[in-house]
Amino acid sequence: MKSLWKYLNERDDNLQFLLLKPKNVVTPLIFQKVSVEIEKLNAFYGLLKFSDSKFRRKKTFKPFKKLSGLVEEISSLQQEESMLKQLFSKEQLVGYKRDIRKLKESKREDYFSIVNEKFVSILAEKKSEVEPILRSTGKKIVAEFLKKKKKKVLKIIGKSGLSESGIEELRTKLKGYNYLKTLIIKAKPKKDDFELELDGWNQNQNQIAHVKILMESGVFDKKELVFIKKVEAKLAEKNAELVNNIKARSPLLTL
Questions:
Q1: CA 130, chain centre distance (Å)
Q2: Is 116 a residue whose pLDDT tops 70?
Q3: 201, 235 in Cβ contact below 8 A?
Q4: In whole angstroms, what is the distance from residue 153 CA to residue 166 CA?
Q5: pLDDT digit string (tens) for 213-236?
Q6: How far apart are CA 86 and CA 83, in angstroms?
Q7: H-type helices in 88-163, by residue range?
Q8: Is 29 exposed, middle or buried (0-12, 13-18, 19+ CB in 10 A)?
Q9: Nearest to 206 by CA among 90, 81, 100
Q10: pLDDT confidence of residue 213
């Protein structure tokens, strides 16, 4: 099935291009793209596991999982750093901002110590490992797998009283389904408003988590705490609005 090879080759080419970028040009957007490519690769491995139960998905994905975790840590620190800049002046929380920046730079160095020619060569190794499975995976298997994935998404949205954990499950499973839907649909699907709303909810969740980190850091005076609590209340209000919108729209979702 040509689309399987095309999908895997795209992941291979895109990751090589991103991972071999010089340190001085790697931006937050690059980290985000690396994360997405690894997600797409992991979704693909899920299909291969469905096609061949003997495929050792966890072992094959292990090096990428470690890198993905590191990229998520860096992205989280970048978000917290951005939030600090938005909320406070240069003169406020100088020490705390410095600590966040140092930790972020430390994680970046960890990333670049892993990402080198040797690591990139793993892509070729993993590609050769899965080639036999690709040859035996036809349209029927892909269709069955996507049907199974679709059923899981529909099961989530069919539940009454969708919880926040359910929203996260819906977001990740819908994303995985849409990544692989490109195997049988020639035109690349664009994110609709519902998916963007799910992403907005996830971003808001991350912001809430960062505010809690700030609240528990113990570095604020009373005046600053009052301000942070107001920010927390605004985020909570936005979260409630997003949750209500998602709950209202999820039953109308078509795949």
A1: 23
A2: yes
A3: no
A4: 10
A5: 878 888 778 888 888 888 888 889
A6: 5
A7: 94-114, 117-136, 139-157
A8: exposed
A9: 81
A10: 84
Nearest one of 169, 161, 158 to 251, comparing CA atoms: 158
Nearest to 37 by CA among 23, 16, 52: 16
pLDDT in tens, 157-216: 877 678 888 899 999 999 889 888 888 766 565 667 888 889 889 888 888 888 888 788
- Residue 183 has what DSSP assignment? T
Structure tokens, 83? 């939030």
Angle (CA) 140-141-146 rounded to 5° is 100
Q: Could you give the CA distance from residue 175 to residue 43 in angstroms, rounded to a whole number?
A: 9
The answer for residues whose C-beta is within 8 angstroms of residue 110's C-beta and 6 or more apart is: 70
Angle at 240 between CA 236 and CA 241, to 5 degrees: 120
Distance in angstroms (rounded) separating the CA atoms of residues 15 and 12: 5
Q: At 232, which helix (H) or strand (E)?
A: helix 222-249
Angle formed by the axes of helices 57-87 and 222-249, to 10°?
130
Residue 247, token pair as written in the block: 């709950």
Residues 70 and 107 sit within 8 Å (Cβ to Cβ)? yes
| Higher per-residue pLDDT: 52 or 212 | 52
* Cα–Cα distance, 93 to 137 (Å, whole number): 56
What was the pLDDT predicted at 91?
A: 82
Structure tokens at 133: 């499975």
DSSP-derived letter for residue 91 is T
